[in-house]
Structure formats: C-alpha cells, structure tokens
C-alpha cells in the first residue's frame, strides 16, 4: 500500500473503491490555445495529442451501455477539437447531458465564433476556468489579456441565457494562485457573484473551487521555488476524512485521447491507468468490474482530500477539519 492508502485506512477505516459510474469524463486531447502555469497536463498550442473518431465512436457505444448522468468533455481546450461538434451532436441527439470544460478564451479563436450558439442549441452545460475575479490574478496565472477575453466571452454566454436559464448552467472554476488551499466555496462564490455582477453585469450558476494538484507545471514551479515540500506538508496536514466518500474517482471513469481508461484526469497526467486486472482501453470496456474497481492512488491524491476537498465538481466537504 502507498502512503495515501495507509492514511485513509488508518484515519477513515476504509479502502478506496468505485461505487458506480455516474459520469464518463472524456479528455479530447492536450492541444490548447493557452499554456497556463498551473496546468496539470502541460497542455498548450504545441501539443498534438487528440482523440480520433474511432475512439469517440467507442465512447459513444459505452455511453449507450452505461447510461451515465453526465458526459463531461475536457482537454486541453476541447472546443478546438475538429470533431467536437459531431461528438456533442451524437450525445445530445440521444438525450444525454453533456458538459464542456472551457478556458473561455478558446471561444475567441478563429472558427469559434458560433460555438457558444452551438452549445446553447444542444443545451450543453459549461464549466469555465476563471481562477479569480481580479484581473491581475487571472493574467498572472494564465497570461496577459486573458482576463479581458474571459469577461468578453462570459458576457456573450450571458446574452444567450447561460447562467440565468436553468437549462443552460454556467459554472466558474477557482484555483489558488499559489501554494495554498481554496477557501470556503460558498463564501467565495458570493464574492465572485458580487464583484462580477457589479463590475461587468455577469451572472453565473455557481462556483467550483479546486486545489492545485502536486503534479504538472504547478508542481514543477514549486520545485523551482523550493516550495514543494512545504506544499506537500500542507496537503498532508489538511487531510479530511469527510472528503473521501465523495471523491470524483469513485463515481466516474475517464477516457484519455488515446482511449486509455483512468480513474481521474490527474492520473492521466501521471500515466496511471485503471488497476492492472482491468481492461485498459475504452474498446475493451466492461461495466461491472469497472464499476466496482479499486482506485489507483498516489501521493497526489492528498490534493483532493485536503481542507474542504477538491474535485471536478468543486468542494467535497462542508468542514475543512
């Protein structure tokens, strides 16, 4: 057993297994119009890894079999994938809930002019990276000019009903700018709503807070600054048993651009596919063993269980102790 597994056994009295597959998360590739310094997958314009249609078709087949509550599409910048429209149309036409994770600025790239309208027409739920409501903090994480472009797209989405029409949900995602844990999600959501409404008239459905994982560009930056040990001790010291039952890996399976199956997007970054006794590719997907699988963990998992907890759907616990 690794350090994380020992900790949840000792402190929480359990082992980590999946309980059911409520969500299928699909990573369409690592190509992105940005190179954010906190990106755990080290995505950027130079990356060429992208899912082909054969793999997408295999995902569609499994979606029909599993009947998940949500198909969660991520990347990279998934909206710049040349086949995303076809993929979303297939899912939407068959009545599945589809969610796309966007960095917002990708929707200003050439050829993306009508993508917000496309999302609206297919009732796609949007989860948008917005690491702060202050310009300086956003630009320092994601690059000069990103804040202004993000505001522009949020206003466009609002004009289409996103964030106001219950069928067009718009969630924003906060992550700390440095080696600290996110604050209380509900309190920060109130700050976001007040500031973005007062300054720009922007409305959104809710806020997700996410902890920066000790992997990828963020981790490399901490190591250069010699703050990696300090951050790891923060995560270890903040371990919270209340988060374990709702960990996202227990209720989803992730499909990488090459069809490999993972417990979560963070394990994709580390090259840790589902446990060795299970099928490794979407083309060999078998529902029952994957629904009850042992979760593959590592030291990075302390990032999801520290403080209020962290997942693709935000905080996991109401108490950070």
Automatic annotation (TrEMBL):
Please report a single Pfam family linked to this protein.
Answer: DUF3641
Matching entries from InterPro entries are given as: Aldolase_TIM, ArsS-like_C, rSAM, rSAM_ArsS-like, rSAM_sf
Sorted alphabetically, the keyword list is: Iron, Iron-sulfur, Metal-binding, S-adenosyl-L-methionine
Annotated GO MF terms:
catalytic activity; iron-sulfur cluster binding; metal ion binding
Annotated Arsenosugar biosynthesis radical SAM protein ArsS-like C-terminal domain ranges read: 181-315
Q: Where is the Radical SAM core domain?
A: 27-161
Listed PANTHER family: FE-S OXIDOREDUCTASE, SLR0304 PROTEIN
Protein name listed in UniProt = Uncharacterized protein
């Amino acid at each position: 057993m690794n350090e994380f597994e020992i900790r949840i056994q000792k402190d929480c009295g359990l082992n980590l297994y999946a309980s059911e597959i409520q969500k299928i998360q699909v990573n369409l590739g690592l190509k992105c119009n940005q190179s954010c310094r906190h990106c755990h997958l080290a995505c950027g314009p130079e990356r060429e890894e992208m899912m082909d249609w054969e793999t997408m078709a295999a995902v569609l087949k499994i979606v029909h079999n599993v009947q998940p509550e949500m198909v969660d599409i991520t990347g990279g910048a998934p909206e710049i994938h040349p086949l995303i429209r076809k993929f979303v149309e297939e899912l939407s036409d068959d009545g599945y809930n589809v969610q796309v994770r966007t960095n917002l600025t990708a929707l200003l790239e050439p050829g993306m002019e009508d993508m917000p309208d496309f999302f609206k027409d297919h009732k796609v739920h949007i989860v948008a990276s917005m690491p702060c409501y202050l310009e300086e903090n956003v630009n320092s994480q994601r690059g000069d000019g990103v804040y202004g472009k993000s505001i522009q797209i949020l206003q466009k989405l609002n004009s289409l009903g996103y964030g106001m029409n219950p069928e067009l949900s718009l969630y924003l995602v906060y992550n700390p700018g440095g080696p600290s844990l996110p604050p209380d999600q509900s309190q920060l959501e109130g700050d976001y709503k007040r500031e973005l409404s007062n300054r720009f008239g922007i409305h959104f459905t809710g806020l997700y807070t996410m902890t920066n994982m000790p992997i990828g560009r963020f981790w490399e930056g901490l190591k250069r600054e010699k703050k990696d040990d300090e951050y790891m001790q923060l995560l270890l010291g903040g371990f919270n048993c209340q988060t374990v039952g709702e960990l996202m890996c227990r209720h989803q399976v992730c499909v990488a651009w090459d069809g490999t199956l993972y417990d979560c997007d963070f394990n994709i970054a580390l090259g840790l596919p589902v446990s060795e006794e299970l099928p490794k590719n979407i083309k060999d997907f078998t529902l029952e063993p994957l629904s009850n699988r042992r979760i593959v963990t590592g030291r990075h998992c302390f990032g999801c269980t520290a403080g209020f907890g962290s997942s693709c759907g935000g905080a996991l616990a109401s108490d950070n102790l």
